[in-house]
Amino acid sequence: MRFLSRRLVMPNDLNFAGSLFGGRILEWIDEEAYIFAACQLDHKSLVTKHIGAIAFETSAYQGDVVEFGLEVKAVGVTSITVTCVVRNKQTKQTICVADDIVFVHIDPETRTPQPHGKTKPQLDATPIVAP
């Protein structure tokens, strides 16, 4: 799993207890997973179909830098399934794991599922280039 993206926890990201709001981290996960899936498939017409198990393991606080690790779990004809791990950049402690995030490639005009033309072996063989 490669950790390629980071975010700084800001005051507006906190809940009433002073830790990172769960809804905010889920928003970030959906966005980061979409970017990763769209780059893997080289298509931007993707929609989130499903997010499976989500496990919150530790908290993050204002000023923490969190990083997102993503990997392809499975590839279907019209879909891609990814896993996302969010961890504290400094301590490497896992904050949250979101498993089975499924995106479906759709036709931008008809909004119906369309084959994306990629396979898992193809994606596994493609190197991820860090910025």
Automatic annotation (TrEMBL):
Pfam family membership, one: 4HBT
GO molecular function, one term: long-chain fatty acyl-CoA hydrolase activity
Region of interest: Disordered: 109-131
Residue ranges of every copy of the HotDog ACOT-type domain listed in the record: 1-109
Keyword field contains Hydrolase: yes
Coiled coil: none
SUPFAM superfamilies: Thioesterase/thiol ester dehydrase-isomerase (SSF54637)
Gene Ontology biological process terms in this record: acyl-CoA metabolic process; fatty acid catabolic process
A single GO cellular-component term on record: cytosol
Assigned keywords, A-Z: Hydrolase
Family classification: Belongs to the acyl coenzyme A hydrolase family.
Protein name: Acyl-CoA hydrolase
Organism: Pseudidiomarina indica
Phylogenetic classification of the source organism: Bacteria, Pseudomonadati, Pseudomonadota, Gammaproteobacteria, Alteromonadales
